[in-house]
């Protein structure tokens, strides 16, 4: 980086650290704006071991000083640009902490839709900053300024519960990895990890003074922790089965726990002694919450009921019935007048606690509710569900305000900050997400793509057209040169599309359907021409021979079928796999077919003799995708075991195992005429490999699990589909530079 004036009087560390602060304090806002929108400075500060992303986020916060509003150099438009950069860094902080080389790609993916001079200049300067990186050609990542603020990573398994201290300084998360983690709400920093439980930590509660944390676990114990030191204070035992839930009275004197032994227990927080056992539920106790008067608790059970308890006598006040399945969560408004409950019956109910009547029922989620939280003003409830979303509901009229989408798996927990401005969610995807409840701007963000999982993408041979297929039962056609949507083809039978292939002449699309068929569409006429029928289960995969005549399909019936596209008939069936056939490919000379299966193997078949030549064994889990090198010498397989394997197709031998992904590898594609390969994974990363050396040369991280990918070799333009329906268009910048 150029360190000429004005930074020449500083060491690099002093320049990176104190220079922004000095500029603001001296009132030199013009230089401050210029510095904080300079890509080289941003990259240097994030990369420096003494600073990192949070230090740069703090630099951006300097502009919030009210005194600066009267400064003659204060510029609202430049301040807006600075806030957008700060928001991008917040959203990408967990990615940059692992891989700072993704800075340029993250900036492009989140900011390229903003028409501001400083943003444009920043992105343009990023183009020449790295030798190898993946540039989004469209704004396909969540932009700053919306609902999602940041993501916290660190747990090794699902997050079951979250809590916020009354001081709003800390967030505590509980996980299946048997630990709790304590995080700074302001910086996202992990303060420390609480270890001691022998099984999943199911719930967590914080005392009103923010000094202690109480956790419950499937190991049948509760633990009380010192939040300042992270030390364990007490372990409470007495339940006969796993403990599912825990709450603290508003005065901080008692703890109430609910268990799979069908009981609740009331404990003295100071001594750890059991005061009462509350009996009455006929099945697991899933949830417990406190009334603001300290004298009552409320519980929900797998027995479909809600019970209100007198904590002074240990007796039951009354029971509420109305849910048709297990009650998963309960919460009481701060005035103690209303109760909100959620259930496995996919409903949320608002109850009047004075009359015991249900006021309304909400049915907005597509899966069972997990937990819920009520905002301090009692006007909104945030619910989470197995459908991977959170919903913010207006309690005054029972209408959904908006949906928060970003998690990649079940959302198990949600908490709201005491000021009601922020929600924190925890998920099976091992992450916490922080949400801004005050904004509505994110509703304007609509990345191009589908309404659900993108299961397949394919390019025409000339590289001009991309086709994507989705769970939303549509095919979409894209102009790869302009990155524009051309048209949408909808299957009139309304079945999800699992895979798609296109004939070499680019005229026909052949796709595999969940209704056991393979359909042939004219791309020009945008209509179905005919259907191949014969499989007895879902068709999972499809490939087309280089002559455009043979079609190969794989199915959940464990077979492959070879079809003649000209005569519209089945030629023969290949059987031998012990589980679903999940991927198929055919060599360009039409001699060999390769199949991958849920039986963890690949099979090489001779098309002429209709016989199996090799079975390739080595993966530890099922095969998700396969690709062939242009010379037909190598086959690359992707697997749920997080690896890719390179095989010698002639010898049937394993050559190389590629590791680097941290979750299932779902897709693989090879760039013809190069030594590069692309893989997409459930770990949300796309990796570009020099597979001859087994080396990753570039990585891009998306917002969701990446399901499929394709590459146009001549331009190194890559098309990727993800779980949220987004179609990403990326370009490997190094390849462009090497051709200049």
TrEMBL record:
InterPro entries, alphabetically?
A: Beta-prop_TEP1_C, WD40/YVTN_repeat-like_dom_sf, WD40_PAC1, WD40_repeat_CS, WD40_repeat_dom_sf, WD40_rpt
**One Pfam family hit:** Beta-prop_TEP1_C
Every TEP-1 C-terminal beta-propeller domain range: 661-730
**Stretch forming the signal peptide:** none
This protein's GO CC annotations: cytoplasm
- Which one of the record's GO molecular function terms can you name? ubiquitin binding
- Show me the WD repeat boundaries: 152-193, 194-235, 236-277, 278-319, 320-361, 362-403, 404-445, 447-488, 497-531, 532-573, 574-615, 616-657, 658-699
SMART domains the UniProt entry points to: WD40
Biological process terms in GO annotation: proteasome-mediated ubiquitin-dependent protein catabolic process; ubiquitin recycling
Superkingdom of the organism of origin: Bacteria
Keyword annotations for this protein, in alphabetical order, are: Cytoplasm, Repeat, WD repeat
* UniProt name for this protein: TEP-1 C-terminal beta-propeller domain-containing protein
What species does this protein belong to?
A: Cyanomargarita calcarea GSE-NOS-MK-12-04C
